[in-house]
Amino acid sequence: MSNPEAQRSGSGRPMLARTSAPQYHERLSTRSLMWSVIAALLPAAIWGVYVYGLRALLVVLMAIIASAVTETLISGSRETLSDGSAILTGLLLGMMLPPAVPWYVVIAAAVFAIGVAKWTFGGLGRNWINPALAGRVFVHFSWTGPMTRWTMPRTLGADSIAGATPLSIVQNAVHEGQALLGGPVAILSASGFPRSTLDSAVTEWLNLNVLTHIGVHLPAGYVDPFVGNVPGAIGEGSALLLLVGTLLLFSRRTISWEIPTAYFAAFAGLAWVVGGLPYGGAAFSGDVLFQLVSGSVIMVMFYVATDPVTSPLTAAGMLVFGAGAGALTFVIRAYGGAAEGAALAVLFMNAGTPLINRLTRPRRLGGRRGRRA
Amino acid sequence: MITLPRRPRGGVHPENRKAVTRSLSIRNAAVPSRCVVPLLQHAGPAAVPAVRVGDRVREGMLIGRAADSAAANVHAPVPGVVTGTATLTLADERSCEAFVIDLEGEFDRLGKVAEPIDWQRKSVRELLRGIRDNGVVGMSGSGNAVHRKLNLPRAAEINHLIVNGIENEPYLSADNRLMIEMTDGVLEGTRIAERILRPQRVTIALQKDSTQAIRKLRRRIRERGLDYAVRALPVNYPQGDERLLARAISGREVSAERETSEIGVMVSSVATMYAVFEAIVYQKPVIERIVTLSGAALRSPANIKVRIGTPIAELIAECGGFVESPEKIVVGGPMMGHTIIDVSTPVTKLTTAVLALTAAEIHHGAETGCIRCGRCVRACPVGLEPTTLYKMLEHTELEQAQAAGLFDCIECGCCGFICPAHIPLVEGLKNGKLAVRQHGGRM
Ligand code: SF4
Ligand code: SF4
């Protein structure tokens, strides 16, 4: 009786629907949730296209179209497309790829995301792992070369292929033992990594007008990665615009606060407490800011880890999940050396979601914890 | 014992849409020329016919006798002649026999000033009998026989009587008007219940947004020197549920298979207290009730006092008919109420509201697969996982569903209301309970 059309009374005017309670509904649908996330991602996507050029636009469009086509072919109808989930997967995937990635890698990632990660489990809501994330990690390991060739943003002057992202430069430096320069930003400067005039200007302004009042001094080199003036994945560069998008997500309650908060607390906490050690610093000296604005942490924290399908059901479960993902991100980054830390961490936690759900069942009124026979 | 009140768990905050009717005084509906009076207007089995076709009945005369203590007497709402019987499907989908009464002759009560009786001199037994004889049931929709609920075994002890003025279904404002306009009747009914139960404390619970009713109750309680607390709770649906309200006020929880009386708490609604008042003080049976008529399809929404048995079509006419054709007509609130497709369905003792809802009000959406967002889990006030239960029932895993708490579900509607995938969760759970009962798994 969920479909009123099917249950119309035949006689008498007016034609009345017969439906089961509740008789009205929250203004919310799967579709509106998906489209809110898409809308929230757009500013960062547009920024990516602006700084990395038309090539980036092509990648994102290809990812979206390939996801949509795969979804349609597999589901056998265009109906599931209308929930927006495949479009969102495509957009998210495109935004996680390097701007100069070859077209076949984009297609392969999309087909893997939708065809394997989503539909081998039966489509929307049944998949274990986030499809976009799965697609990205799949191509990362299949085509590691093209997946780690990054484009310099136009705002840094050069329009060339750059070797590496700030995070990978820093990670490599640490691994090669030249880390004793004081911290990630110092390493970057020493490596001759370009810095925009915007960075110096904004840093200076902040120091003079804001931070001085609270007795803090911000070194140069953070503003560029924060606004997205660095080589990186198309849509992950601009922490600023991704954060702007989260305003929409929170105000419309598209995502709940538990996962990002727990993720942030665990990741930033670890980065602060032990993050300084590889650079020869003491405990409680880690460069949290750099860790947060580099790599895909912001993207993953707010847009990927919060995927409802692959995260736990209860608030407690979400806190565990978020904290686990945050901690794993840090651990993989710091000790595994993989700049892909955030993505892998969430994939791991996705796999743990059923277990977390079992351990965090709500308590039933009157005492007993929900059991399953 | 000192207990701390507790914050609600789960629940939802639907747009309440009460503003349309909240300030409208209760008015009397025209007496219908023909009443259709169902013999099943309570929990338990249908009443046994006490008159025959052709009989002449007086206003308030017994026409159906309670079959057992869970059932309630039914009375003639108008004087007249029993012209026939009919088999009806009620709004709540139960079927029963009904008497058709054509209006004729004089009213014994209407238009006359009744003499109140001094109930203080009556014994508890007499009071309970008065409540039973006059067919008083839980007037906020539960339909439980009130004399039975108040008549506790000797060993049981009620510490705390909670009078429920929460009325937290959206649109509804009849209880709110009752508390404002018939304050003394509600308080008098409460005193009668207090006399029967002898609780240590009496609390009248409302939601914070019923400011006028809160002020009025507090003022009358003070003026009459009563020792009742008025508690204003934060807005949250469905805290008007008996167990949830008992928890909110007393801080103690009872599971689904136990009664609140086991923790010494009795919850009864303001409308029930008013019916008790009328039954005892004026010896008046339940032949009328106050109904909220609302919904955007209706020309002029209202709170109306109507005779039981009035066809709903006449109430709609009373409100000026429709301004646009409704998508559905709901009897009861939008969260738990039922649709009717036949507007000749009569008002019963359980009809709290009639809502004519337009398509724009109900936000119907396409059903998609469950996206495992957990909104239903967070919303469930009794701590179930509706999505998990629903999936179990889809696979007819009846035993697993029972173990996971299927019968704890109070059918409040929160999960179905909030689900972005528009999955008919509540319907699935209700059907699951039916399936279990049919398999004899559990009563
Ligand atoms: S609210 Fe709906 S979509 Fe979300 S978990 Fe519950 S059933 Fe699934
Ligand atoms: S499962 Fe039952 S009690 Fe829980 S929200 Fe749904 S209808 Fe209400």
Fraction of residues in β-strands of chain A: under 5%
In this structure, how is the largest beta sheet of chain A organized? 2 strands, antiparallel
How are the strands of the biggest sheet of chain B laid out side by side?
A: 1-14-13-17-15-16
Shape of chain B: globular
Largest sheet of chain B: 6 strands, mixed
Bound molecules: iron/sulfur cluster
SSE string of chain A, helices as H and strands as E:
HHHHHHEEHHHHHHHHHH
Task: Kindly report the oligomeric state of this protein.
Answer: heterodimer
Q: How many helical elements of chain B?
A: 15
Mean pLDDT of chain A: 85
Distance between the termini of chain B: 35 Å
Q: Structural class, judged by helices and strands of chain B?
A: alpha/beta
Rg on CA atoms of chain A, Å? 23 Å
Poorly predicted segments of chain B:
none
Q: How many helices of chain A in DSSP terms? A: 16
Q: Whole-number average pLDDT of chain B?
A: 92
Order of strands across the widest beta sheet of chain A? 1-2
Helix/strand-derived category of chain A reads mainly alpha
Q: Point out poorly predicted stretches of chain A.
A: 1-12, 369-373
Helical coverage of chain B, percent range: 25-40%
Indicate the radius of gyration of chain B in whole angstroms.
21 Å
